[in-house]
């Protein structure tokens, strides 16, 4: 398997709730580094999406002057799944783990099946069987 070369980056106020959500919808944990003085704080996490996708995230840091993924709830990510049926399965898992429905399942004009949810912090997750060109 090739290592991902592009990562979507997010920050969460409740990173353990985010880890539960991400695992439920199909992400696989690669590494989670916690602050040794405050184990509730994640300083770096990397999760894999399928064969080639990646997500890096951390806990919100109020001392972040660079602004690197420091605002929770403003991200948007497209999750490509293997089939129209998989859209429904991932959607159900997301809703069962605290997401709210943002867009009903539908068949967009460019193909595939798509639905969208917002996680508990407001990030948008589009679940899509269209693999792109």
> Strand order, biggest sheet?
1-4-3-2
The overall average pLDDT, rounded, is 90
Approximate strand percentage = 35-45%
Largest sheet: 4 strands, mixed
Low-pLDDT segments: none
Describe the global form: globular
Instruction: Provide the helix percentage.
Output: 10-25%
Distance between the termini: 21 Å
Number of helices: 2
Q: Please give the number of β-strands.
A: 8
Structural class: alpha/beta
Tell me what the structure shows.
With 133 residues, the chain is α/β, with parallel strands linked by helices. It is 17% helix and 42% strand. The protein has two helices and eight strands; from the N terminus they run E-H-E-E-E-E-H-E-E-E. The protein has helices at residues 15-24, 84-96, and strands spanning 7-12, 27-35, 38-49, 53-59, 76-80, 100-106, 114-118, 124-128. The strands form two sheets. It has a four-stranded mixed β-sheet with strand order 1-4-3-2. Strand 7 (114-118) and strand 8 form a beta hairpin. The longest helix has 13 residues, at 84-96. It is globular. The protein starts with 6 loop residues before the first strand and ends in a 5-residue tail after the last strand. The mean pLDDT is 90.
């Amino acid at each position: 398997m090739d290592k991902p070369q592009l990562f979507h980056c997010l920050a969460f106020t409740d990173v353990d709730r985010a880890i539960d959500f991400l695992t439920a919808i199909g992400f696989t944990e690669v590494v989670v580094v916690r602050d040794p003085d405050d184990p509730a704080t994640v300083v770096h996490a990397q999760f894999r999406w399928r064969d080639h996708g990646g997500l890096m995230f951390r806990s919100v840091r109020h001392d972040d002057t660079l602004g690197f993924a420091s605002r929770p709830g403003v991200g948007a990510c497209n999750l490509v799944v293997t089939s129209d049926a998989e859209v429904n399965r991932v959607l159900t898992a997301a809703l069962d783990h605290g997401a709210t429905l943002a867009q009903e399942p539908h068949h967009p004009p460019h193909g595939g099946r798509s639905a969208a949810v917002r996680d508990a912090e407001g990030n948008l997750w589009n679940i899509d069987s269209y693999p792109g060109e």
